[in-house]
Amino acid sequence: KSGKAYVLEKPVAMTLAEAKELYLATKNTGLTNAVGFSYRYLPAVQKAKEIISSGALGKIHHVYAQYIEGKDDNENIPLLWRYQKELAGSGSLGDLGSHMLDMMRYLVGDFNEVIGTSGIIIPKRQKLDGSGLGDVTTEDYFHAMATMENDISATMCFTKFAWGRKNSQRLEIYGSRGGLIYTLENGLRGSDHLKVCLGNELALTGDWVDMNLKGFDGVYNTKSQMDCFAEKMLGIKNTIPADIEDGYYVQGIIEAMMNSTQSRTWHKVSDYIIK
Description:
By secondary structure, the protein is of the alpha+beta class. It is built from 7 helices and 13 strands.
């Protein structure tokens, strides 16, 4: 309302209704904005985008995505806000999954239909005031399948109960002429890697080539999230940053997935998103 540009963290809201309200308000004012899907800016993701956009993978068939952690597999962690749906909106799906849902859209395209299953592994945790145990109401894990545009089939795994893993991401994309594997360990910039297998010769031998990408000062230079936002403020065209429309769309996928766990049926993402 004050007319100020903004950067918003992800997920952009606790519900799709909230995301829609913010999306429409921003659209009507034309404010410069960005959403913190920060993994877009990693060299490995930018190189993957370049390879896919070039058509080197051919027609994309499959996407396999996971974002896993092990930090919540501890009954001594109290009932923090992240474990309360009324305060967080969702659990592993919104916290971890939103990043990968955006990355999948950014690299290969939009979602058509989704279906998911979720669960709570530690159902009660100690209340912060010490008055006893309270109910955990956000999901500890979320597993899903999806169909995406151009007949792409996808599976996804998001959990905070993967023992020994710290902010670990893996994205495998396979097409008619090649494949690529993106990984990130410990959530640290510089730990991102990209391997590719392109063409019949490498496919026959099963050899994968490590792209050996560097960070900001290396051979494959990428800009940071805030650098890109500053460029948007200055009117410099930049296609990397996600904006509130991307955030709204991802919130629609999240809501469709969450509803699918209740109905046990496939849900069309287009039923949740206004164009």
